[in-house]
């Protein structure tokens, strides 16, 4: 007999994103939560600019898979909201009541969606198992054997992860200074061209993005991937000059290096492109 473990999936930042008070307003952390089941679930509207969460989902799951995963996530939010206030914000997946049965979907599709949603790369859910003493144990996404309506690996039909990651990275740094910033255009496409056509190393592009967004002048001038591509040579020269000047500290010993947020390899990018070249 197949063993079916008990899992509980917590929606990340439920109280901050989705919980409401007695009047239906976003819960402020001090007033009482609405006592009964919620009638609606709050979802932030990003419009044409989409949002960082959606872009991360695209980067992790791919264009073909992301819509199905997002649809399942929205239904999970509904299930998590259909409970008294002390039991909201999570869903259970048990032998007695499998989540796939609750949602009316194929068990394999639901499991693969849960793997994406609770993966460290996305983190929209955190998983706790009754068979495991480690609380909120997040699952690892194994893209090598995922076959949910396609796959999680890069393919010619999906934006390359490396280009999308760099686009997200640039947008996140801009939003740290300008929270209301709206991303326009296909940044991943511009960065893809930088790598394939301009022969830029993704690791160098990351370093240039980090440097220009920390520079008091260039941070206000590089507000898109197309502008980054246009000014890349000048930015890289200035970055290298500044780096060489600050390689050692006053003691003569090497200055500490910043931790890298992203990792890229030539192998991960090989054979992948976006759209038409120009």
Helix content: 25-40%
Mean pLDDT: 78
Gyration radius over CA: 22 Å
Going by helix content, strand content and strand pairing, the class is: mainly alpha
Measured between the Cα atoms of the first and last residue, the distance is 58 Å
SSE order, one letter for each helix or strand: EHHHEHHEHHHHHH
Q: How many β-strand runs?
A: 3
Which residues form runs of ≥5 with pLDDT under 50? 132-159, 255-278
- Give the total of domains: 2
The helix count comes to 11
Largest sheet, spatial ordering of strands: 2-1-3
- Proportion of strand residues: 5-15%
- Main sheet record: 3 strands, antiparallel
Q: What does the overall shape look like?
A: elongated
Subunit organisation of the chains: single chain
Write the layout of secondary structure elements.
Elements: E1 7-11, H1 14-17, H2 52-61, H3 66-81, E2 90-93, H4 99-103, H5 107-117, E3 125-129, H6 161-177, H7 187-196, H8 202-214, H9 225-230, H10 232-245, H11 266-269
Antiparallel strand pairs: 1-2, 1-3
Helix pairs in contact: 2-6, 3-5, 6-7, 6-8, 8-10
């Amino acid at each position: 007999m197949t063993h079916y473990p008990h899992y509980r999936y917590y929606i990340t930042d439920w109280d901050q994103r989705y919980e409401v008070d007695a009047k239906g307003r976003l819960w402020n952390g001090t007033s009482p939560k609405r006592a009964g089941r919620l009638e609606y679930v709050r979802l932030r509207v990003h419009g044409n600019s989409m949002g960082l969460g959606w872009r991360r989902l695209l980067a992790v799951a791919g264009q073909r898979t992301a819509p199905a995963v997002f649809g399942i996530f929205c239904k999970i939010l509904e299930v998590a909201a259909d409970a008294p206030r002390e039991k909201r914000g999570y869903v259970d997946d048990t032998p007695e009541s499998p989540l796939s049965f609750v949602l009316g979907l194929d068990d394999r599709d639901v499991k693969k969606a849960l793997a994406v949603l609770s993966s460290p790369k996305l983190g929209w859910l955190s998983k706790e198992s009754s068979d495991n003493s480690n609380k909120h144990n997040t699952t690892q996404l194994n893209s090598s054997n995922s076959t949910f309506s396609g796959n999680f690996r890069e393919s010619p039909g999906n934006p390359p992860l490396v280009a999308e990651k760099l686009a997200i990275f640039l947008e996140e740094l801009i939003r740290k200074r300008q929270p209301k910033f709206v991303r326009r255009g296909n940044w991943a496409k511009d960065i893809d061209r930088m790598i394939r056509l301009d022969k830029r190393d993704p690791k160098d592009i990351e370093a240039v993005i980090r440097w220009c967004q920390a520079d008091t002048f260039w941070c206000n001038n590089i507000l898109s991937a197309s502008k980054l591509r246009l000014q890349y040579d000048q930015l890289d020269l200035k970055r290298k000059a500044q780096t060489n000047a600050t390689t050692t500290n006053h003691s003569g010993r090497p200055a500490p290096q910043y931790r890298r947020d992203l990792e890229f390899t030539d192998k991960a990018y090989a054979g992948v492109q976006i759209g038409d070249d120009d």
